[in-house]
Amino acid sequence: MAKPLVSDELWQLIHPLLPPKAPKPNGGRPRVPDRAALEGILYVLKTGIGWEHLPHELGYGSGMTCWRRLRDWHAAGVFTRLHQVLLDRMAQANQLDWTRACVDSTSVPAARGGPKRARTPRIAVGPAASAM
């Protein structure tokens, strides 16, 4: 297996946030360990390779397995909770510099949905527009 991308200390923070494994009453293939799947996810994100190109020799499982685990963990809110845990730890260690923080509308929605605007009509553009 390659050099670990997740330290033991970081794994101790992440592991309790992961959803419990679903039971397999009918048996089946053994599940790839969560830590190996997380490292596979990080490997893909770090290197920029496609999921289907994740080398099996690294011991992370298949790219599809890692992708599914990422999808499921995202849907379960794991990464949002992890972000909060890391921010809390950094705040306790006085390592947050809020003078460099930025908030935009993707982070904080407008109050009551923001002002209502009139719909603008669509304008046809391109070769199909000249045929009209």
TrEMBL record:
Q: Which residues form a coiled coil?
A: none
Q: Which domain of life is it from?
A: Bacteria
Q: State a single Pfam family of this protein.
A: DUF4096
Q: Where is this region: Disordered?
A: 108-132
Residue stretches making up the Insertion element IS402-like domain: 6-83
InterPro entries per record: IS402-like_dom, Transposase_6_like
Q: Which PANTHER family match?
A: BLL5188 PROTEIN, TIS1421-TRANSPOSASE PROTEIN A
What this protein is called in its record is Insertion element IS402-like domain-containing protein
Q: Which organism is it from?
A: Deinococcus daejeonensis
